[in-house]
Amino acid sequence: MTRRPTFSVQAPAAVVMVRPYHFTVNTETAVDNRFQATDNSGTDFAPLAYAEITRAAETLRQHGVDVHLFEDTGTDTPDSVFPNNWFSTHAGGHVAIYPMKAPNRRRERRADVIDMLKSRYRVQEVIDYSGLEPDGLFLEGTGAMVLDHIDRVAYAVRSDRTDPIALERFCTQFNFEPMAFAAEDENGVAVYHTNVLMCIATDFAMIGLDMISNAARRREIVDRIERSGRDVVALSHAQIASFAGNAIELQGREGRILALSTTAFAALTKDQIAKISESATPVALDIPTIERAGGSVRCTLAGIHLAPRS
């Protein structure tokens, strides 16, 4: 396969991260997030989570990624460490703000983040979908959708957090083709977010194919990924449970990197790592405390696909 140049619209060179001061597992989202830990054993996880995000941000900066690190000192936003769910950015100067299912997640939306984007990057418009929440229509950002910025496809697992009306509205306004599908784990439990089972990079896609319940739809997705010029890296149920699908490709100083957790990296095979390394250097971030909340590295990073101001 002919590899694309180092620069890629798929791999942002800058991200937003949120460092929590009072991290805890969100009880409002535990109903449909089977990745969350259920036994918290009375441990104070806040200092550990704070340190993990601090180290992760520093590691990404060492690789040349521009990290905009925001602080969350509040106690009523337990999932604030996952900013990719409430906003996304897009080439051409577009920003989307999303409707969230859990009421306490709606409080994560921050004007100072949007103001920073407007001051540091060229933002032409901000489209706010949060007004859909009273109607029970939810679309939790790049958790609900895994976006192919090159081929313009929005892959989306059907769930309570991915409403088809909201998905269609986003795709129409942001020029993506929706590709929705049903997915479940090995116990038949529906997957709550697409980005736990799928990662689209420039030259490859990591995906839990066995979780896509409809065989015909599974073949369509594989065909679409391969027609876009990518290799398919199939992930097992066990690898998905270790957050191997929850990764994101970024533009580093020396080339593209694949940011993922140490848990995820340890779950990959040598052949999978070799395939990934052909076009992106794996960078493992140690965030086991954060992962107790049901999300991993990709969830903690909101990519910035905007042109910086001079």
From TrEMBL:
InterPro entries of this UniProt entry? Amdntrnsf_FN0238 (IPR014541)
Q: Work out whether the entry's keyword set contains Protein transport.
A: no
Name the UniProt key words of this record, in alphabetical order: Transferase
Q: Name one GO molecular function term.
A: transferase activity
Q: Could you tell me which PANTHER family the record lists for this protein?
A: AMIDINOTRANSFERASE
Upper lineage ranks?
Bacteria, Pseudomonadati, Pseudomonadota, Alphaproteobacteria, Hyphomicrobiales
Keyword Glycosyltransferase attached: no
- Which Pfam families does the entry mention? DDAH_eukar
Descriptive protein name: Amidinotransferase
| Top-rank lineage group of the source organism | Bacteria
